Amino acid sequence: MNSLLFVFIILSACGSAVFYFAANDGQRGAQCMSACLKLSFIWMLLSGIVPILAAALAATGVLIVFVMARSAGLPGGKKELALFVTAIAAVFIFAQGCSIQGGRMPEKMDEMKLDYTPSSIRASLFDNNVVYAGTERDRVVYAYDMSSKTINATIAAGYMPVDIIQNGRSIITANRTSNSVTIHDLRTGKSEQVQSGGEYPSAVAYNPARNEVYVTNIGSNNVAVIDLSGNTPEVVARILTGKWPSDLYLAPDNRYLYVSCKYTNTVQIIDTQRRLPVFTKVDTGISPSRLLPISKREIAVINEWEYAFNRSSSILIFNRINYGLEYDILVDGGIFDAALSKSGRYLYVTVPPKDKVIFVDLKKREKVYELKFRDEIPKWLTVSKDGRTLYVATQQSKRIYYISVNSLL
Fold first, then answer.
1. Which of 73, 130, 192, 245 lies at 20 to 30 Å from 142 by C-alpha?
2. pTM of the full predicted structure?
């Protein structure tokens, strides 16, 4: 039965109910209204409307029927009302418990073969079909049109760009083996190479308020500050951190910079105005390798090597407002990269030692699904602008997979 026919029958039942109530035939009016509400509830479930909305509307409708029937002088009805509301509550609870399992799970839809080993990937902020991919053994970042699987542009970079970010006018990369940062102007197509201020840069962040780039240098245990406001980008400060600073997160106010330090198992906080670490350090799990904002207040800290002891990686949720560690989630050990779903409810992570991509429900605080990549070593991932496609780059098979996230949007 299609939606139009459902709507026609529902409206007919509703109209009949109004007619009977107007004619003081409360019993038939209540029967028609009850049928209308039951059909509406069934239609909402079949149409994929969120169960909580369907249950709330149906329960409200039943209360209206009960009140109208009582006002028409009909006796009883309390038992029937209680049973119907209980049934709706049961359906709602069941639907909530099965909403993910009953939905369509993520699946591989397509793939693109590469002739090089990727070093990182990043989806465009502005074009839903564009993905930037770095090369492990070359000084290039390619901009791909993922719909046609063609290269739109070739960006000159340093060797092994391991982190790629985009702001309104630039592509910025941290180039691991050339100890440099690339600033590529999207308007002119020109690239500038700047020394990273240390050895083995691993991550970059851009501060629009100060027109500065921050870069972590694992080999030098510092965060360098690159000023972009002059004629030529240059390193203007080096801020000492804990050992092996691996990732960065700049707060929305552009004041505080969070740095994950893998060897000291801490997250360090830097005041960007004073260019100094603040006193507070956050103790995390073993080897924090990624920082991922999941809300305005919370950061997911990905602890990569926890599994060396208990064969699990931990995802620790840190509240940066009150400096509290709220909870952690254990998944299969060896997380490498992570990305947040468009809705903010799901976390996608790659686990190269297990050849898996794992999908974590942040609300339920548990793993809800996984995709296996046999002997392919999935490492890097990024989410398309519309949030519907997860791109996964593999080290061993040198591919970028197109994953439809389906119900885990």
1. 245
2. 0.76
